[in-house]
Amino acid sequence: MAGKLHHGHCLCGAVKFTVEPANSAVAACHCGMCRRWTGGPYLGVDCGTSFKTDDDTDIGIYESSQWAERAFCRKCGTTLFYRLKQDNHTYVSAGAIDDLEDPVLTDEVFIDEKPGYYSFEQDTKKMTGEELFAFFSGQES
Q1: Is 77 part of any domain?
Q2: H/E run at residue 10
Q3: Pairing relation of β-strands 104-109 and 25-29?
Q4: Domain of 23: which CATH number?
Q5: Domain count of the fold of the chain
Q6: Considering the entire predicted model, what is its pTM?
Q7: Using an 8 Å Cβ cutoff, are 83 and 90 in contact?
Q8: What DSSP designation does 37 have?
Q9: Checking phi first, is residue 111 left (phi over 0); if not, alpha (psi -120 to 50) or beta?
């Protein structure tokens, strides 16, 4: 999977892109911002800095925090990606990638903010928001 280009697009087709996912892992984020943004958990694929498009005219960027921004199609509203500002590390919406091969839900973050009205049956690695921030700061125990 790594090293292979995959194509994707928004609902209306105005935004077309290519990505090189690190692997077939899908991560779910249950934080309040992601749930408000997507209407449920955000399901993203780690694509590093590989997100490429020939025309970013219809990509809207919302700076949702000091460290991250979220992208969407300006025409149809499709959730496109979550990107860390520091290094442009991008988690692309799993549903926007056309040809993702054998995706597997592997991780859930902000599990402490997950509401009780949904759950996944897969056994995943689960991290609270505090654990996730500790991981990114290199202070994970």
Answers
A1: yes
A2: none
A3: parallel
A4: 2.170.150.70
A5: 1
A6: 0.91
A7: yes
A8: H
A9: alpha
Bridge partners, residue 11, by sequence: none
pLDDT (0 to 100) of residue 140: 55
Which residues are within 8 A (CB) of 119 and not within 5 positions of it... i.e. 6 or more apart? none
Which range marks the domain in which residue 22 is found? 6-136
Res 2: pLDDT: 58
Burial of residue 16, with CB atoms counted within 10 A of its CB: 0-12 exposed, 13-18 middle, 19 or more buried: middle
The confidence score (pLDDT) of residue 137 equals 77
Structure-block tokens of residue 31: 């934080």
Question: At a CB cut-off of 8 Å and minimum separation 6, what does 115 contact?
Answer: 30, 35
Encode 24-37: b = buried (16+ Cβ within 10 Å), e = exposed.
ebbbbbbbebbbeb
5 token code pair: 């280009």
Lookup result for tokens 């609270």: 128
- Integer CA distances (angstroms), 16 to 36, 39, 69, 111, 138, in order: 24, 23, 19, 32, 35
85 by DSSP, 3-state: which? coil
Residue 141 lies in a domain: no
